[in-house]
Prior knowledge:
By secondary structure, the chain is of the alpha/beta class. Helix content is 49%, strand content 15%.
Amino acid sequence: MSTKSRYITTTLPYVNARPHIGHALEVVQADALARYWRLMGDEVFFNTGTDEHGQKIYEEAIKAGKEPQTYVDEYAATFDALKMGLNLSNDAFIRTTDLRHIQAAQEMWKRCDAAGDIYKDTFEGLYCVGCERYLTERDLEDGKCPFHPDREPERVTEENYFFRFSKYAGKLTEYLKKEESVIPEVRRKEALQFVENGLTDFSISRRKERLHWGVPVPGDDEHVMYVWFDALANYISTLGWGGDDEKNFENFWVNGETLQMAGKDQVRFQSLMWQAMLISAGVPNTDHIFYHGFITSGGQKMSKSLGNVIDPMALVEKYGTDAVRYFLLRHVHPTEDSDMTEEKFVEAYNANLANGLGNLTARIMKMAEDNLDGPAEIPPPVVFAQEYTDTLERFAFNEALDCVWAQIGALDEKITTTEPFKLIKTNPNEAKQIIAELAQGLYIVGRMLYPFMPETNVAIKEAVKANKKPDTLFARI
């Protein structure tokens, strides 16, 4: 068993809408890794939260006739509710309106300023409200932001503070040449190409007369921080950096390994800008920060039957927590675009959960309950098969679950070939031995399912320990 300190964080979703299935994918992936690492003996800190400042938030709050703080409180609660709905094991839920985060963001500003990396200048050009950023000519597609083609970019002239992003091209290139800096490889190459095409300094403030909903800039009452500069600091503010107690920061950031989950379109912001800010602020162990992986999730192509803004809680209510976790982790590719339809969800549910795992559990435990004198001996904790652990070290959640279902298939095959339900009549001792072995194999399947389907893990293991057929795990739909 290893004894590493490991820090894993999702990006912070922007609270201008309720959680959608893409948010659920990211947090469930992170949760599966956190649970797996804990299972392997690591000390883990798992962070998620909400990004709550910026122009989009302010505009949506005004449209809704609410104060921005009231507006973000309501939406933040819907994201925090994912913890229970998706059975997440996160250790922290950081909000960028938290006082401890605001103080850390201001400390980050002061340190970057002290390094000579913040200066005031006038920007004249296009601005995308959807992305909350200024656009250069190379950002445009057909004259519009590629991420918000339905919104006309605003032409603005404004005095802002800027961060010397261009200063760090060399260090960022060095960082991106490490093969594990960004996963998958195609995203790392995209990021490297972006840096090699030339970096431009980016604005990190907005004038209060235009936008007051943000973290105040230290020493200048006329400006608030640009939402990206503010929000990115969450990844260490959640660990206590910049506050009175930096124990978690020392343990998990300075002396531990780190992994950040993000959508495929977030590498520029979440790794490059953030990495440059960390170096500028002199945050310890910066060279190490993303070496252990910055994994990007694929963008999910949703069908009309689900819609891009489907509430994952609605799926949970209809099909159950573990069924949703199972589908996201096995049938949505970890890093590539995937097509998700409710028809595919139901098909996978019936084939692999109801008719597969659920039916196998019922068959084995019915035989055990009827024929064994007591519970089968519980298998001792063992090191998992390397094939299983290798897939998780590569963040291949779908392949890890394929390993589990291979074990399920092997147990089914054993029942078919040995027919203990018939053998019990002619050779009860041998039949009981086979049934006990099947129950032990089922227990191991439950153990392997822990990172992915924690409720099912408990149900299976408790059934084996009690030598009793459980209530139906997954009723066919």
